Here is the input.
Amino acid sequence: MHDVRLTQLNKSYTSGVTIIPSLDLHIPAGSFTVLVGPSGCGKSTLLRMVAGLESVSGGTIHIGERDVTHLEPAERGIAMVFQSYALYPHMTVAENIGFGLTIAKKPKAEIDAAVRKAADVLQLTHLLDRTPKALSGGQRQRVAIGRAIVRNPAVFLFDEPLSNLDASLRGQMRVELADLHRSIGATMIYVTHDQVEAMTMADQIVVLNKGHIEQVGAPMDLYRQPLTPFVAGFLGAPSMNLFQGELARGMGCDTYGVRPEHLEIRLDQGRWPATVHHIEHLGADSVVYADVRDVGSMTVRAEGELDVRVGQTVHLSPRAGFDHRFAGGRRLAT
Ligand SMILES: Nc1ncnc2c1ncn2[C@@H]1O[C@H](COP(=O)(O)OP(=O)(O)O)[C@@H](O)[C@H]1O
Ligand SMILES: [Mg+2]
Here is the structure.
């Protein structure tokens, strides 16, 4: 197990475009760290620099005690799993998993043992003789992860590995990856634009925005105490209601936020009268979109099946102590 330390790491292209201005980050040994941010914010660039697939413009990368900034990918003790997990179609699952070891000319007995162990962890043992075309999407992705496992890396790097899978399979793979992390205990750095993956799998989340770090912390700490309006709006679904202008000023700040699940909805009275313009019944809960005059749309999430109609007037109130105030782009102490 190794930690990873990025110090004043930056990346610019010769065209003059700066992707990552200067980034400092510590990834604890054995952690499952998720780098999350919108598309184009520099996640893949950052991960590829750690992997050695992309040169750095400045700064250093340490894996454990070693400065790996200028080492070849193969010398870094890492293994990477990508979104597009190109498997060799003519090879069996076992051959695909063991391919890196075969190339490295490891003895056959050693390769077989490593493949069996990885297949066991990933529940692929019964599929070892199949070719990729006879596998489901989730099974193929597990084979790609198996290829990484057999190399026994100190650090696993994942770049949006679940993005090509359908929603139910993504949910299942999230659980499997978390189990995998528990069973092998290696340091894992996982990149995604999906805040649900970040919230559910990470023990440390790093929120990235335009190549800089907005906040680092445990998922529920970021959910409860977002430091910036960006983090507040990015984590949590449906997104936090965020308001500037008069409503915020009335609350003593310049950006006021309240999560949909922290708004109370009542028919008789409340802080903000609002007109319902859309309702989503999700079964376990209901999401109501209501217009507050001169403010805009507010999203409310209520448990169970809420009995309101489009066009109806309701009253919304923030739950005391669960709202968020920001000024100058930073969280105000409550
Ligand atoms: N070779 C390049 N030259 C200039 N800009 C690039 C190059 N490669 C990627 N970029 C830009 O870098 C930014 C970050 O890209 P990327 O790291 O792939 O983002 P993410 O993985 O977060 O979606 C994007 O705006 C992308 O257009
Ligand atoms: Mg990317």
Q: What stands out?
A: The pocket of magnesium ion (ligand 2) is lined by residues 43-44 (CB under 6 Å). The chain has two domains: 4-231, 239-331. The first strand starts at residue 4 and ends at 12.
